[in-house]
Each structure stands twice: as structure tokens, then as C-alpha cells.
Amino acid sequence: MRTHAEITSLEDAVADLVHDGDIVALEGFTHLIPVAAGQELIRQRKRDLTLVRMTPDIVYDQLIGAGCARKLIFSWGGNPGVGSLHRFREAIQTGELEIEEHSHAGMANRYVAGASGLPFAVMRGYNGTSLPEHTDTIKPIACPFTGEQLTAVPALGLDVGIIHAQQADRQGNVQLWGQTGVQKETVLGAKRSIVTVEEIVDELVPKPYAVVLPRWVVTRVCEVPGGAKPSYAQDYYDRDNDAYKAWDAISRDKEKFAAWLETL
Amino acid sequence: MRTHAEITSLEDAVADLVHDGDIVALEGFTHLIPVAAGQELIRQRKRDLTLVRMTPDIVYDQLIGAGCARKLIFSWGGNPGVGSLHRFREAIQTGELEIEEHSHAGMANRYVAGASGLPFAVMRGYNGTSLPEHTDTIKPIACPFTGEQLTAVPALGLDVGIIHAQQADRQGNVQLWGQTGVQKETVLGAKRSIVTVEEIVDELVPKPYAVVLPRWVVTRVCEVPGGAKPSYAQDYYDRDNDAYKAWDAISRDKEKFAAWLETL
Amino acid sequence: MSWEPDEMMSVAAARELRDVTACFVGIGLPSTGANLARRTHSPDLVLVYEAGAVGAKPPRLPLSIGDGMLGETADYIAAVPEIFNYWVQPGRIDVGFLGAAQIDRFANINTTVIGDYDHPKVRLPGAGGAPEIAASCGEVIVIVRQSPRAFVETVDFITSVGHGDGPGSREKLGLIGNGPTKVITDLGILEPDPETCELVLTHVHPGVEADQAREATGWELKVADDLVTTDPPTDEELRELRELVAAR
Amino acid sequence: MSWEPDEMMSVAAARELRDVTACFVGIGLPSTGANLARRTHSPDLVLVYEAGAVGAKPPRLPLSIGDGMLGETADYIAAVPEIFNYWVQPGRIDVGFLGAAQIDRFANINTTVIGDYDHPKVRLPGAGGAPEIAASCGEVIVIVRQSPRAFVETVDFITSVGHGDGPGSREKLGLIGNGPTKVITDLGILEPDPETCELVLTHVHPGVEADQAREATGWELKVADDLVTTDPPTDEELRELRELVAAR
């Protein structure tokens, strides 16, 4: 029985917990994106991953371009405020990357189902859209009381959930605050979890709008200051918008991307 | 379109929003119980109410003894740490009060369904218990992906949701903190809502573990200091445990209860 | 003062937010329009962003829908599942703004793919929050530049349902919101005909002719008998807008 | 030091919490036992209360499952739906404590009604959190005083499933936890037989004879061949327990 999160290096955490072929989610909704952890997956040449993320952004473009992913489960793929993700786009257009596509609401509910230990979640959505024609994980379900036709989406069945947080204490209790997206569900819905943090502190001080993940539901905590850059970590650093813009030129050109990969 | 909560007296709020025959929930899980609002329902002689509450406690004993309720939807009825609720108990034993009985998990999910605008919620529960034999609002449902048999419970369909909070601002934004139970869902899942508050302040300062209810989803805010007594309001006053103990003798004796009712 | 077409779009969008309580905002022109409304006629407008900020009061235009400033100025921050399940799905948001890569005569929207889904000509970002915003917000305002490539006879993929295949479609699908009520373009404003649900040009922006809009539309665009010219941006609107855009 | 039967029950309950990470606690003896464990051998034991406190560290016994002190000392406070959906339902809690008005030989529990449901002899409080605790916690420890009225051949109502009608029942019902592993009474400890799932008396408390337990049971109680006598409460256990109970 797990009583505490183990505190290790990110390198060890990724080596020990992420296996080729795993279903892996790295979450963080524009805030606290676990970029360092994603790049460690690339460095360790993980392969055949099913990558899950509501908003695949530049770190997913990197993972896809580096050949780590067999499949992507997502709801919006772009470089926010800049434009396209060219590695992502090309991989889909050439058919190299299998996709399973949802709406944000569908993905959020799949995370909720996982965190709840349920095989599926119910929502009012997708009716009339083309998504159910192309996505097997969207099915109709009738309310047993009213007969109303609603939509069911399955739990994600994550092997590993990876997030970045501001702080953990020495027992591995984790606290993140600000806009916290689906990070709680990412950890609770995964068999194993890695949380990179800005810093390890003696005591967590409760904050407004915080998500707390108690020590016994977190597998590994890794201290990685700046681990969310170029995204932001509230009360630590701001978004590096220039890096998002600069990514466009690298991603657009296969050679430049290959050169970038060498520097990682 | 509603843009702000209206700030009125509790008397006016109850007179305007609660009608005989309504489905009404007063929530607060041992903390912030809306006792003053419940007693205002008694004072205004509301009748034929379907009363909803996970943990009917002494204010529900009072409402039931005063003849306000036709039906009770609940999951645990007792005087916590003291013993039985005698008006509640007698009304059920004599068959005067219709009941619809769930578990806490079932009730919590019924509130969630209401807040989500869904007709029902799915949970893993009730299997093997005697509850489904006696409660029509528990039905089996199969997962459309795995075939697993789970349980469905319907939304509560509340006409009025009533809670007590620590603070509201002058526009009717509400903040409560500490253990906040199902209060958010009570307001969001009801057609109309009344929030009594300890005080109205110029500005709400975000607190850890707070529930914020924005002004446009709250119908009425009423300033009622001490409105949760004898339960407690964190950072305002403690639970009056002697009052809970003293209630036992009043509730046990029909004449004493009638005399108490006169004093209300 | 003179103005750019994008400025006219933002101003027209802002004007639609009079007497609106809560508005679901994306990045780009919708965000500009909503923030302009809050700075001019609707200081109490509640801006809801999909990353969790409810009641955000950004002093500048946010860089992303989860910009830290949105959370810091919000009345409160909800988790993402709560945003969709407790706020969008039950219809608590009056107005949702959407963009489009393609839009058809019934205001159905494609932001997923150009060409065949399995062999796409151009892969677009996908659905994001749009399908449920389109389904459940009180009304939807679409903001999109008008061109025959965007205004098409048939969208390649229905990402978000407008008025389906016409009258009664939304009811049949169980969609609780009223769907698109305005399509604001760089040329004018289109509104669904109350009888047929087909988009009709009801406004042209100052200096634009109805024929320009017809030419920029991939179907035979109907024009309202009482076609009106949009009021040009006022000096105050332009001043506030430019201040907002300049603030970084 | 000498002790009261209730003290023996609390001490026996506390001892079951060695090497347990998280424990779901109600009010009364379970709360006393869990807090005693935290004060003696298991300082890191995570107490979870159904009103939302996760990791509560109460300096005195709480007056209610939502006592303010629980929230003030908690690692964090969850909303009630989260407690049941994210913590209990997926089996994240190792041990759940339950009381009982009636319990049968398979440790099925009634806290709902004595007599007929529609015409009850005695109406009890009802289910509360018990059915899902019984279904999904890693294991369940029942704490109940032993008497023929409580230990019955057939419970009048199954509020919480123990081992159903015997081996395989829990699996058939899809219950993910292991169900009741111990029933701690004022006379001893009963455990389900690994083959038959029937409760067997495995421990008697000091000074208690097996026959007393048999007489206090409404079915023919089986007694383990290797019946052992519970270790009496140590002085330290009693001292900590009395300090805890006295603190108000």
C-alpha cells in the first residue's frame, strides 16, 4: 500500500513509470503545462504512446514530431494565439498519427469518469455534429427516468497522468492554484502519476482555488523549477509568448525541427 | 434576464419564492445549516412541501412536526451525536410522512445531476442493498462501452434551494467556506434560490476551500446574522452542542413541541 | 476617425452584448469584442473563459484563454469540468462567441477539417469548447471574415450545430440554446430568417454594398428588404478599442 | 489500569489501523478508534470524514462529522460529491468503519428500519454514507455491541452489504472492496471464515468467555478453534484514549 509519494529525479520517474505503448496524459490548460516532463519523454525515446490531452500544444507538437506517439486523443490542437501546430498537422494529414477526437466537454467528462472509478460519463452533447460518425468513443444513452437521449463517453483508462504544480511538501502532498483545468482528474484517473513542481516546501499553505492532491494518490514528485516554461506558473513566472511565436518557424520546417530535436 | 441577486428580508424572500407544494432543499452538512430560513417556512405556515436534505436534523424535525412537509427525500435522519429526531421518527412510523430514501452518495449525485442540467447521474452503488426495492428513483443502467451494470439516480428537480453562507457582496455574489457540502449544487440545481448570510460586505476576499456563487445564479440574498444557529458558521460562531442535546426532550414530547412551536 | 474592418467587427460584436449578463469568450475577436463591451456600455458583463475564469476583468487582452490575469481578476475560478457541466451545459451563459473556418446557410460551423476527415486537405484545430457552446448558450454570435471559402454551400464537417437543416432541427436534436442569432463579418451582419432559419444579410457596414457580401458568399445569399447600414464605430468605441489592443 | 468495554472496543479498533493509509471515519466509537490510532502507532493515518475533511488532525473528538475543527486541521476540504465520487467510489480509502443496528452472519448491516419498511416498528436514521463505504472501501470494520437484538438471523433491511449470501456474492454484485474483515464488539472480535464468509468468533476480550458471545448472538455462532484472547489495553493506550475523550 502506497502511503507517500516518492520524491525522485524526473529522469528516474519517467524511466520507471512510463513504458512504451502506455496511455499517457500531460495536462495543464494553458497554465502549468508539464513541458519539462514531456521533453523527458522525448529524451528517453518513448515510443507507441497513446497521448491524451485536451489542448495539444507545442510540447505535444514536439512529442509527435519526435515520433513518440502512435495515437492522439484530444479536443483542440493548436498553438494558441499563434496558429497551427505543424508537426501535429502534418502527422494527421499524412495519416501517420491515429486520432480520437472529442470536444472539450467530452474530454473533461472522460477525465471525470476516470477519477470517479466509473467506466463512462453522461453529458448533453455532440447531437447533430459530425463527431460521432468519426469517433467510436461517443455513444447515445437514454435516461432511464425520462427517456431523454443523451451522450455517453468512456473513461480514458490512463496508465500515467503527468502534471506540473507549484508546490509539494516532503511527504509528497501537492498543491497547485490559479486555473487548474483537469489536473486533479488526470492524477486521480491514472494508474501511476508524476507531478513536477516548482519547489518542495516544508509546509503547504492553503490557497484560494487550489487543488490539493494528497500524498497517497501521487506516485512521484520531482522538483523541476521552470518545468512549465514557456507556459506560466502563477506566482512563479509569466508565459513566454515569444517562445510560442518562435515555435512556429521551427515546427513549420522539418529540418529546423530535426535540428531543434538534436539540441534537446 | 437576471443580472444580480435581489437583497431583501428573509420574510419577503420566503413569501415570494416558496409556494405550498414546492420541492424545497435546505442544505448545509452540519456546517452553515439554514435554520433561520427553515423556521421562517414554519412561521409562514408553508404546506405540502416536498422537503429535500441529505441529513435532516433538528430544523427538519421542526418543519415536519409543524406540518409543513408532505414528503421527505433524504439519506440520514438523526440528531447527530445525540440520538433520534422524534417528530421525524413518529411521522414516518405513523405513515403521515411519505419518504424517498437514498444513500449520501445517491443524494450527492442527484444534486450534481441537477446542477449539471442533466436528468440523471450514474454511480456505482446500491447493488445488493434493500434500497432499490423501496425507492423508485434508483434504477439500473448499463455502460454502453463495457456492459457493466451501474446505477442511475434522477436529478432532484428543486423548485427552491436554500442555503446559509458567511458573506455576500452588494451585488449578491456569495461566498461560503470551510466544509461546504452540496450547497453549490443546491443553488445551481434549483429554479429559485435563497441565500441567508452572516453579513453583507463591500468586497469578497477569496478564501481557501471557498464556494463562490456568482450574483446571477442567486435569486435572493438575505442578511441574517446567526442564521445557522445552533449549527456553526466557520469564523463566526461555534456549534451550540447544548441546544442539540436540549432539542431531544422537546422533540420527544408532543406537548412540549407544541409549546415550543408557539414561541417561534 | 477612420477604422479597419476588424475594428468594425469588434465594435459590432461589443454592441450585441448590451443587456447580457454572462458571455462565454474565446481568444481573438470575440475576446476583443467582449472586453470592449465591458469597458463601454456593460461594465457588469460577466466574462466566462473555458479555462475556468468566471467574471474575469482583464486590464489588457489576454494572451490565452487561460491567461493568469483572467484568474487573478475573476470573481472565481472553476475547474474545467465544472465550467462545462455546471455552467455551459445547463444554459447558464447567455451569449457564446464562436469563430468558423467554414459556415453554411444554416450557420452550421466547421473548425475541424477541410476535405475528407480521414484524408484531410487541411487539418484544423478541432472542436474545443464550441459544440457545447453552440448547443447550450442562450444565443451564439459567430464572428468570421466573409469569403466564398468560408461561406460554403455545405460544410465539410459539422463541428458545431447552427440551425441544422432548418426549422425544428435544434428542437429535434434536444439543443437547449437558441443557436446562432448573428453572424458578424467584415462586410456586415447576417441573421437567420425567423421562418426558414436561413442566414439573411440584414446589415452592411458603412461603405459596403450588398453585392460585395453576395460575392463573398458561396451560396445565393438573401438580402433583407430593410437592409440597414451599421452605425459606424463612434470615437469613444474606437478609442477604447485601440487602448485595449495597445495594452500589453 | 482497569477499563470499560467501550474502551476495549476503541482500543481494538485503533489496533486494526496499523499500516493503513486512509480511513473513513464516522462519529462515535469509529472516530475514537481512528483518532486513538493517529495518536499512538499511526501518526500519518489519513482520516477522511464524509462532510469533506481529508487528512483531518483533530485535537479533540469531533462533535459531528462536519465539526469545524476537522476542516481547520485537514490537508484539504473536498465538496461532498467529490468525497463520494472521487474518493470512496474508486476505492481510494483503505478502511471504512461502520456501526450497525442489526447485523447478520454474513455481516450484512441494517441501519434503516426495525420491522416492516412501510410500517416500521422503529425507524432508524437510514443509510448515510454506509452503503458505498461498505461497497468500495478496501475493507470494512464494523463496531457494534453484541446482543441477540443486534446479531440476528436475518436483518430486516440490508442497508449495507457485507458478504451477501456467502462466497462470491460481492463479486456478483460488482462491489470492489473486500467487505467486512472484522466485527469488533464489547465481547470480542468476529471475522468472516475465508471459505464460507460466515462470521466466526476469533477473539474474546480479557475476562469474556466464548459462551457469553454465543448467548449474545441470534444465530448459532461459530467459534474459532484457535480462539485467542485480545491483548488488554496497555496503560499508554488507555491514557491516550482517556485524554482524547476528556478533551472538549
Write the layout of secondary structure elements.
The complex is a heterotetramer, with 2 copies of chain A (264 residues) and 2 copies of chain C (248 residues).
Chain A: E1 6-7, H1 10-17, E2 23-26, H2 35-43, E3 49-53, H3 58-65, E4 69-74, H4 86-93, E5 98-101, H5 104-115, E6 120-123, H6 131-134, E7 139-142, E8 149-154, E9 158-169, E10 174-176, H7 183-188, E11 190-201, E12 211-213, E13 220-223, H8 241-252, H9 254-263
Parallel strand pairs in A: 1-13, 2-3, 2-9, 3-4, 4-5, 9-11, 11-13
Antiparallel strand pairs in A: 6-8, 7-8, 9-10, 10-12
Helix pairs in contact in A: 2-3, 3-4, 8-9
Chain C: H1 5-15, E1 22-25, H2 29-39, E2 46-49, E3 53-54, H3 68-73, E4 76-77, H4 80-88, E5 95-98, E6 102-103, E7 109-110, E8 113-115, E9 120-123, H5 130-136, E10 139-143, H6 169-173, E11 180-184, E12 188-192, E13 199-204, H7 210-215, E14 222-229, H8 235-246
Parallel strand pairs in C: 1-2, 1-5, 5-10, 10-11, 13-14
Antiparallel strand pairs in C: 3-4, 6-7, 8-9, 11-12, 12-13
Helix pairs in contact in C: 1-2, 2-8
